[in-house]
C-alpha cells in the first residue's frame, strides 16, 4: 500500500492516468462506431431493396409483371423467396429471351451485388425460402458421403442419373448435371424446386441430409476414373453403344473377311 501511495504522488501519475483515460474512451468510441446500429441496418436493407426494384423493373418486369404478379409467359414471383431468385439469376438461367424453352445454366448477367439486391426485393414482397448462409453449408463437417450417396440414389438418380450427370425427361425437358454446381445453388434447388424438380422440404430431406447429398456430389466430382475412360459416366447407354459400334462391328468385319477368304 505504501508503494502504491508513493506512485500516486508521483508527478507523472496524473498525465499517465489522463492518457489511459483517453485511450479507453477512444477505443470504446471506435468499437461503438464500427458496429452498425439497428437503424443503419434498416436503412441499408431499404436501399438494397430499392436497388433491386430498379433492376427488376428494367430486366424482369416485361415477363413477370410490374409488381412481380406474373403474366402469360412467366410465373408470379410473390412468395418464391430470395433463394429462388439467387438460384435462377446467379446461375445465369434468368433472365432469358425465350421462356418457352428450359432455362440453361450459363454465365450470369448480373453481378453478385445486383443478384443480392434483386433477391432482397423479391423477398420483401412475401415470405419465402431464404438464401442459405455459410453456417448452414458446412457440408465437409456435417455431411456423410455414404448417407449422401444413398439419399441421392433414392431421390435424385431417376432424373439426374446415378452419377449426377443429368438425363432426359419428357416433353423435351431434361435434368441438368449437378457436377460443377456451387453448394449454395444445390441447396437452393432442393428447397425451391426449380422447373421440373420437386421441392424437398426439411421434413422430406432434413438440412443435415441435404448437406450429405452435397458432400456426395462433391466427392463424385473429384473421384478419378480408375477403370479408364469414364465415357461420360452416363451408364450402360454409352457402354452399349461402344460395344455395338466397335465390338459387333469388328465381328461383322471378321465374318466378311472369312467369307471372302473361303471363295
SSE layout and pairing:
Elements: H1 2-8, H2 13-34, H3 38-59, H4 61-64, H5 81-90, H6 112-125, H7 139-142, H8 145-155, H9 157-160, E1 167-168, E2 174-175, H10 183-192, H11 207-222, H12 236-262
Antiparallel strand pairs: 1-2
Helix pairs in contact: 3-6, 5-6, 5-10, 8-11
Task: Compute the CA-based radius of gyration.
Answer: 30 Å
Report the order of strands and helices: HHHHHHHHHEEHHH
Query: Which fold name is given in CATH as the topology of the domain at 134-228?
Result: Cytochrome Bc1 Complex, Chain D, domain 2
Under the CATH scheme, the architecture of the domain at 134-228 is Orthogonal Bundle
Query: How would you characterize the largest beta sheet?
Result: 2 strands, antiparallel
Strand content bin: under 5%
GO cellular component, one term: plasma membrane
Domain Cytochrome c: 47-126, 143-221
Subcellular location: Cell membrane
EC number: 7.1.1.8
What can you tell me about this protein's structure?
With 263 residues, the protein is mostly helical. Among the domains are: 39-125, Orthogonal Bundle (Cytochrome Bc1 Complex, Chain D, domain 2), CATH 1.10.760; 134-228, Orthogonal Bundle (Cytochrome Bc1 Complex, Chain D, domain 2), CATH 1.10.760.10. It contains twelve helices and two strands; from the N terminus they run H-H-H-H-H-H-H-H-H-E-E-H-H-H. It has helices at residues 2-8, 13-34, 38-59, 61-64, 81-90, 112-125, 139-142, 145-155, 157-160, 183-192, 207-222, 236-262, and strands at 167-168, 174-175. A two-stranded antiparallel sheet has the order 1-2. Helix 5 (81-90) packs antiparallel against helix 6 (112-125) and helix 5 crosses helix 10.
Amino acid at each position: 500500500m505504501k508503494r502504491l501511495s508513493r506512485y500516486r504522488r508521483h508527478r507523472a501519475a496524473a498525465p499517465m492516468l489522463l492518457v489511459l483515460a483517453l485511450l479507453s474512451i477512444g477505443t470504446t468510441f471506435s468499437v461503438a462506431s464500427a458496429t452498425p446500429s439497428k437503424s443503419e441496418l434498416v436503412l441499408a436493407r431499404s436501399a438494397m431493396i430499392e436497388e433491386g426494384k430498379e433492376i427488376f423493373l428494367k430486366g424482369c418486369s416485361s415477363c413477370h409483371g410490374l409488381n412481380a404478379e406474373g403474366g402469360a409467359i412467366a410465373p408470379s414471383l410473390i412468395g418464391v423467396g430470395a433463394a429462388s431468385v439467387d438460384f435462377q439469376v446467379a446461375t445465369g438461367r434468368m433472365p432469358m429471351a425465350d421462356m418457352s424453352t428450359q432455362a440453361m445454366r450459363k454465365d450470369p448477367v448480373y453481378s453478385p451485388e445486383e443478384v443480392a439486391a434483386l433477391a432482397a426485393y423479391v423477398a420483401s414482397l412475401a415470405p419465402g425460402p431464404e438464401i442459405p448462409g455459410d453456417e448452414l453449408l458446412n457440408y465437409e463437417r456435417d455431411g456423410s458421403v455414404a448417407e449422401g450417396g444413398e439419399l441421392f440414389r433414392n431421390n435424385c438418380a431417376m432424373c439426374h442419373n446415378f452419377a449426377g450427370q443429368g438425363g432426359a425427361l419428357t416433353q423435351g425437358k431434361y435434368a441438368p448435371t449437378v457436377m460443377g454446381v456451387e453448394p449454395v445453388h444445390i441447396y437452393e434447388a432442393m428447397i425451391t424446386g426449380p422447373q421440373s424438380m420437386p421441392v424437398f422440404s426439411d421434413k422430406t430431406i432434413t438440412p443435415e441430409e441435404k448437406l450429405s447429398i452435397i458432400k456426395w456430389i462433391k466427392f463424385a466430382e473429384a473421384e478419378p476414373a480408375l477403370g479408364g475412360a469414364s465415357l461420360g459416366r452416363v451408364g450402360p447407354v454409352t457402354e452399349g453403344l461402344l460395344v455395338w459400334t466397335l465390338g459387333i462391328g469388328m465381328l461383322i468385319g471378321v465374318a466378311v473377311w472369312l467369307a471372302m477368304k473361303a471363295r
